[in-house]
Amino acid sequence: MIERDARGLVAAITVLLSFVALVALAAAVATRPEPEVRAPSVVSIDAGIERVDAGAAEVAPTPRVEVPYALDDLPRDGAQLAEGCPEVPLVDHAGDPVPWRPALRVHPALVPAVRALERAIVETAILTYHRAPIRILSASSHRCRTMRGNPTRISEHALGNAVDLRGIVLDEGEEITIRDHWSATGEDAIHVRFWHALVRRMIDEQSFRGIVGPPRADHLDHLHFDHGRSRFTDVELP
Ligand SMILES: [Zn+2]
């Protein structure tokens, strides 16, 4: 009876051990094929890269939609100047609170952008010099002419759609100009910071579509701002 029980126990243990062995084997089979486990993860990495690329394409910046501007539809061919200046409304703009010298003569549609430039000049001067300028020096505003170096196109100046800034007067007798202080060194390096901060702000704000300045040979002494039909920036900060 005892012997039979012992045999039964051995048989039960054998069955149990066999079962454990089978489970272990099954587990080993389930986890063994590492290559198969790794392979899908590699594929998913590749797929991930593709998704990133596809995602980047999907979120690429959409083309700028320009807000229509009053002068966009006016012709720009240079030949029209043979008939005289384009007939456009013009206003005198003295500048407020800091006056322009000479005062500007521009198309009324350009006035908001000119005001944005005035604000940028005053605020950048306060940040740089801790005071506003007493005057802003212009080099040109309305002027009936073709583009520099391209007689087939009229200048935006001919439409009153551009202003040229040549400097500021910080205190009586102290002129800070692009000609003298665009890339000044030593004690005058503070003026370089002023001009560069101003240009960076105007580029960021986009209140004008066109900004031209040094080192262009014909713009070494002024910054040109216009609201022509296309956006461009042709100025280099040294
Ligand atoms: Zn100009």
UniProtKB/TrEMBL annotation:
Entry keyword set: Signal
The UniProt record lists the keyword Signal: yes
InterPro entries: Extensin-like_C, Zn_M74/Hedgehog-like
Alphabetical list of Pfam families matching this protein: Extensin-like_C
Domain of life assignment: Bacteria
Cleaved signal peptide residues: 1-26
Occurrences of domain Extensin-like C-terminal (ranges): 95-228
Protein name: Extensin-like C-terminal domain-containing protein
